[in-house]
Structure formats: C-alpha cells, structure tokens
C-alpha cells in the first residue's frame, strides 16, 4: 500500500530556471506536492542543456533535478499566456521564481497583483543578491555567490588561490533547501491566517549563514580567518591525512578526550601529558608538530588498518570518497542513498535519493525529468477545464 505523502494536495507553480528555486520544487515534489514546471514554449529551461547529454535530448542534471514534476509550456509575456497563468495561480499554493528582481512586476505578474487573485499565495523569490539592497538588480550564479558570501575566501591552501568549495552549484542547492524551509513555514502561516507572503533569498546568503563563527569572531576580536587547507582554526588535529596506499582519510578531533583516544591509538599516550598536547590551546600552539605526528602515523598504515585502529579507540574518521568509491560503499547501499530507476526516455539512471528520510511518510519517486511540454494539454484540461479546441488556439497563438 502506498504510504501518504506529507505534501500531498499542495500545488506549486515552478516558473524558475536552472537550479536554485527549482530545487526547492524538487524537494516538495519528492514528498508529494504537485509541481508544475512551466517553461517558455521555445526556449525551455537551460538546465535541460547543462551537464551530460543523454539520448533523450535532456541532460542527466535535468533528469535528476526535475524529477517528479509535470512539465508544461507557457509564455508569460504573451497576453493569452499571462491570462492562463493567472488562472493557474488561482488554484495554486506556491509560486517559485528566480528572475532578476522586478522582472515579474514588469510583466504585470508581481506577487502583490497575484495575491489579489489568490491571497494565500506563497512566493519563493531567489536571486543573486535578494530583492533589496544596492546590488539587487545585478546578475549572479553560485560561483559568484560563493565568493561574495565569504565561502571561496576560505577554500584552498594557505599559500594558494581560492578554489571551488566542492560543487560549483553549492549555493544553488543550499538556496533551494532554505527556500523549501521558507515555503513550509509560510504555508503554515497561510493556513492559519489566510495570508501568503514572499520568501526572499539571495544566493550569497545561503552560504554566508553556514560559516560558523567567522562573523561573531570578527566583530568581537577582529580575527579574519584565512585559508587553512583542510585545517580549522579552533581544534587540532582536525583534517585530512594520506595512508600508505595513497588513500585520503578525514580524522576529527573536536575535544581533548577524543585527542587522548587518538594519542593512545597512535601509541603515543604521553602526548596528553600536561606539558605536551593535553589541551586544545596547546595543540593549536603546536599545530604543525601535532599534524605532522598524525601524518606520520597515517602514512605507516593502509586505510583499512587506520580505520580499525580509529574504530577501536572510538575516534571519528572516514574515507575521502570519490563517486566511484561511493558506488561501491556498503553503507550507501544499505541506506539506499543511490536511487536506481529506469526512465522511459533515458533508460537506466542512478540518482541521489531524496533527503530527509521520513519513517512514516517517505519520499516517492514517480518519474525523472519530463520532456518539455509533456503535460501541457493534461494540465490545461484537468486544472482549467480547457477543451482541445481552446488548447489548439493557444498553441497557434504562441502562448503555449
């Protein structure tokens, strides 16, 4: 029996492009929301061409991140297209958009006007710099957001240039997550009060919010954190080390107790003597020496041997996995983190499974990203009651 979906009955219009706001829609769709992906009739979403192309004409990125959404075409700048859009708004709970601020208003489709049609409408607005401020009208992508928000400054070796902090799309994904959280909170308010609101997110804000204590530390002490490679300023040892066969591992010592256990595993319990490296402050003062001891220890063992030693001492550690390692990992398999499906257009696919894991109302996979306009006729018929002749007239006009 199919388990109930937590977002069942929630209707979402996704008119955004690429990744940030649409990813919020993907999260909602994974958990049962009806999400209509609305694209320009001729241009479509550029996400369809971003990444590895497949035999169906859309990329793997599209097939993964547009999953569980229905796809229709509609030209919002066309008078008849805008009229259809307003009718869809009347039946929707959420609108997702990531145009430059002022674009919807220029088209006569700003949130205030749309709430005259549907007062409960929640509008997620993702842009480079947010809806206010001196940079509000400027373009930007995740790469720019990482720099502006302070993340890229911290990524890299101390004597090297700033580097990409993992995925080049990290700020997009984070903004989608924050966006989904904002939508959920706003829906609860709308249910209680009957009034919708805007969820306003700048891409850079999504990464800035996650930079632990750098803001209060600077305000309090003037400390500017610099690039430290795999190190962090507040604890030692806490980084990456290479084993004898060339594999890399992460070891995390976030307290004096954990370091004592690591010192025992290393066969150097004397490091915890009061005049050695007993405290975090002592280890920070002797950072290079401490890291060097761990490096020498790790280099003398295989990753398996290191793992056995750390596990026995209850020291947090883990392999630094490539995607190939992940596909072979027993824990990923046991948790079903990789969703294997067969798509009618692209064949066998392996996709990241939905997060979070809900025990009573889990996410479900219905289909991968659909073809452009695949559901236009069905949506116009089911949602608005338009007949075949009406739909053909819209198609001839260029509105769909």
TrEMBL record:
Name of the top EC class for this enzyme: transferase
Q: Does the keyword RNA-binding apply?
A: no
Domain of life (superkingdom): Bacteria
Q: Which Pfam families match?
A: CoA_transf_3
Q: Which residues cross the membrane?
A: none
**Database matches in InterPro entries:** CoA-transferase_III (IPR050509), CoA-Trfase_fam_III (IPR003673), CoA-Trfase_III_dom3_sf (IPR044855), CoA-Trfase_III_dom_1_sf (IPR023606)
Q: What is its EC number?
A: 2.8.3.-
Query: Which keywords annotate this record?
Result: Transferase
Which molecular function terms from Gene Ontology are attached? transferase activity
Official protein name in the record? CoA transferase
């Amino acid at each position: 029996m199919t388990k109930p979906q937590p977002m069942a009955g929630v209707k979402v219009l996704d008119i955004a492009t690429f990744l940030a706001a649409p990813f919020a829609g993907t999260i909602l769709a994974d958990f049962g929301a009806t999400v209509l992906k609305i694209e320009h009739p001729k241009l479509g979403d550029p996400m369809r061409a971003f990444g590895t192309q497949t035999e169906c004409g859309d990329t793997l990125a599209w097939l993964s991140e547009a999953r569980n959404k229905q796809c229709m075409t509609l030209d919002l700048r066309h008078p008849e297209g805008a009229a259809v859009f307003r009718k869809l708004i009347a039946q929707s709970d959420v609108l997702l958009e990531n145009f430059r601020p002022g674009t919807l208003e220029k088209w006569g489709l700003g949130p205030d006007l749309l709430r005259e049609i549907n007062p409960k409408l929640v509008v997620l607005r993702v842009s480079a710099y947010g809806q206010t401020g001196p940079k509000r009208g400027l373009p930007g992508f995740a790469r720019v957001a990482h720099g502006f928000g302070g993340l890229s400054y911290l990524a890299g070796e101390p004597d090297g240039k700033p580097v990409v902090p993992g995925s080049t799309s990290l700020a997009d994904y984070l903004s989608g997550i924050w966006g989904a959280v904002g939508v959920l909170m706003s829906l609860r308010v709308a249910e209680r009060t009957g009034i919708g609101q805007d969820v306003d997110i700048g891409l850079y804000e999504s990464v800035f919010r996650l930079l632990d204590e750098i803001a209060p530390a600077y305000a309090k002490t003037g400390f500017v954190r610099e690039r430290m490679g795999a190190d962090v300023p507040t604890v030692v040892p806490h980084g990456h080390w290479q084993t004898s066969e060339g594999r890399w591992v992460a070891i995390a010592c976030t307290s004096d107790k954990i370091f004592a256990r690591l010192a025992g595993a290393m066969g150097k319990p004397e490091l915890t003597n009061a005049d050695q490296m007993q405290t975090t402050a002592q280890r920070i003062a002797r950072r290079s020496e401490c890291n060097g001891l761990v490096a020498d220890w790790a280099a003398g063992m295989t990753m398996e041997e290191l793992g056995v030693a750390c596990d026995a001492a209850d020291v947090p550690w883990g392999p630094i996995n490539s995607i190939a390692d992940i596909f072979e990992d027993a824990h990923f398999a046991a948790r079903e983190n990789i969703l294997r499906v067969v798509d009618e257009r692209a064949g066998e696919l392996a996709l990241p499974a939905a997060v979070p894991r809900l025990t009573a109302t889990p996410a479900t996979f219905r289909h991968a990203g659909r073809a452009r306009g695949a559901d236009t006729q069905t949506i116009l018929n089911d949602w608005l009651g338009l007949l075949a002749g009406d739909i053909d007239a819209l198609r001839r006009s260029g509105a769909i």
